[in-house]
Amino acid sequence: MYLGLSIENSVVNAAILTDGGDFVWQDSVALEQDKIASLLAVCSAITEQANTAHPGLSEKIAVSTEGGFTSQPSPPDGLKCLIGTDLKSNLQASLGRPIALASPGQALALYESRFGVAKNCAVACSLYLDSHVFGGVTFGETLWRGANRIVGAWGHMPLAWPVPHELDGRDCWCGRTGCIDCFLSLSGLEEEYYTITQTRLDIQAIAAAADASDLVAANVLQVLDDRIGRTTATIINMFDPDVIILGGRLANLDRLYQTVPRKWPGYLLVERSDTKLLRADPDAFTLAKGAACFAADPAATGLYQLWQTSRRGSDQCSIPDTASGWVLHNDSLWHRDGDFFRIKNGVVQIGARLGRRVGNR
Q1: Would you say 157 and 179 are in contact if contact means Cβ atoms under 8 Å apart?
Q2: 139 has which bridge partners?
Q3: Cys-Cys crosslink for 107: which of 124, 240, 290, 296, Cβ 3.0 to 4.6 Å?
Q4: Cα separation, 345 vs 191, whole angstroms
Q5: pTM to 2 decimal places
Q6: Does 111 fall in a domain?
Q7: By the 8 A CB rule, do 327 and 334 touch?
Q8: What is the Rg, in whole angstroms, of the alpha carbon atoms belonging to the chain?
Q9: Are residues 167 and 125 located together in one domain of the fold?
Q10: Which domain holds residue 331?
Q11: Which domain CATH number covers 231?
C-alpha cells in the first residue's frame, strides 16, 4: 500500500492506494502555522494516522507540492515556509522514510491517467490552473518527468502568439517576464480585472459579474479563453495528446470546455483537432491520490525506465536471478543506477563490457 500527501496552503491531504489499485483511506489535517516545523509535524501526524488505519504501508511516500524543490524557486505567495527549503530532505529526516516530490500538475496527470478522464489514453497532458500554473504529461499510465524532472512546467514558458500589450513587463515570480503563469493563474486573472476597474474581485465574483452582463468581467473572461486556447494549442502542437485535462479552481469555469477548443483552429497545423479538453476530477483528494500513484511508481524513487515490452510487440522481458535491483513494472524494466546492460532476445544481460549504462536516457 502506498501513501500520497498533498500540501496546500491551509491543509495537508492524504490518500492510500492499495497494491490492487483501490483507494481505501483518505483524510486531511489543517495546517495552522506557516512554519516548517508545523508542516513537518502535520505530515508526521497524518502519516501516523495512515499507518494506524492501514498497517503495512510502503516505506516510500510521495508528496504533491507547489514549492520546496531544491532545483527551482518556490512561489512567494504560497507557503512561506517552503521558500528556500529543501522539503524532501526535511521530510525524510522527520518521517524516517524515502520521499518523492511531484508538482500538482504531475500528480493530477498521473491520477487522471490511471483513474480519471485520461484512463486508456495513449498520451495525456494536464494543465493545473490555480494559484499558479503547473502541468504534466503521461504516456499510458506512465508519468514522463524528463532529465531535469520538470516536464509540464508550462507556467514558465512565454505566452504564445502574444499581442503587443501582453509583452509589457509582466514580472513572474520565477525571475523572468511574460510567463504563462502571469496570465493564467488566479492572481493573474484577478490582477487583470483590477488593472481595468481598480476593484478587487476573486474568480467567483468575476464569473458572477460576467453572468450579470458586466462588460469588463465578460471581456476579461473572453481574453482568458483566448490565452488558454493559445497555451493548449501549443501543447497540442508539441505532444498531440488524446486529451488535455484542466484542473485547479480555474477549471471550474464551465465555459472553458466550449470556448477554448474553438480557438484552436487558428493556432494548429491541422484544421480540425481530435484532442479533447476535459475537466479533472473535482475531488479535494485528487492530488493526494495522484501522489499515492506516484509513490507506487518506480520512477518516484529514482529508478530509470530502460525498456518497455509493449513497444516490442509480443516480446517478453526476463530478469536473471543474479540481476539484483531490477524491477518489472507496468510492462517496463527499471533499475536504480550504475549497471551496464543490454537486452538480447528479451533477456537482461549485465556486464562491464556491455554498451549501455543505467541512467543514460
Answers
A1: yes
A2: 123, 142
A3: 290
A4: 59
A5: 0.81
A6: no
A7: yes
A8: 22
A9: yes
A10: 303-357
A11: 3.30.420.40
List the beta bridge partners of residue 166.
Answer: none
46 and 149 share one domain: no
Q: Are residues 246 and 341 in the same domain?
A: no
pLDDT, one tens digit per residue, over 117-148 is 999 999 999 999 999 999 999 999 889 888 78
Q: Determine, yes or no, domain membership for 112.
A: no
Which H or E element spans position 136?
strand 133-139
Q: Are residues 147 and 28 in the same domain?
A: no
| For residue 338, pLDDT beyond 90 | no
Q: Look at residue 150 and tell me if it is in a domain.
A: yes
First-to-last alpha carbon distance for the chain, in angstroms, is 29
Q: How far apart are the C-alpha atoms of 280 and 144, rounded to whole Å? A: 19
Confidence of residue 343 (pLDDT cuts 50, 70, 90): low
- What are the residues whose beta carbons fall under 8 Å from the beta carbon of 209, sequence distance 6 or more? 201, 216, 217
Grid cell, residue 269, equals 497545423
Sign of CA dihedral 127, 128, 134, 135: negative
Confidence at residue 14, expressed as pLDDT on a 0 to 100 scale: 97
Q: Which of 20, 27, 38 is closest to 4 using CA atoms? A: 27
CA dihedral defined by 77, 96, 296, 339, rounded to 10 degrees?
110
Residues 266, 177 share a domain: yes
